[in-house]
Amino acid sequence: MSNQDINSKIKMAEQEVEIIQEDEVTSYLKSASMNGSKFVTLPKKDGESKIYQFPIEKSKRTLVSRPFVDPITKQETLAKKIRYLVIDPSSPDQGEKELDTPRTLAQQIEANIAKNHTVLEITKRGEGVNTRYYVIAA
User: Is 101 helix (H, G, I), strand (E, B) or coil?
Assistant: First the structure.
């Protein structure tokens, strides 16, 4: 084998290593930006809607307690929420995310799941203590 052949093979190997390293970096950066948070949120503004795919499996929902600070009295209490593992249908490659819901919203979600409606649109109506969420099959 000539020196030219050896140099050519070395150069090809170096290029392959660069491509592999670039792919690893690109993959890492994409996963960090796409999976940056393990949570999704409920709609924040009056009239805003969000669509999520809910699991039929009961093992993908849990009762959780989180600290809640009353904005008026500033007292902290533990609030119980129902946490679902959901998928955002607009970006399913991000995988399952956690969504914490109040009891009244969870009751609507469960009623829809019982009817085999798993892709649900959640709409927020009202502000502050007058906030209500409404759920329909999407």
Answer: strand
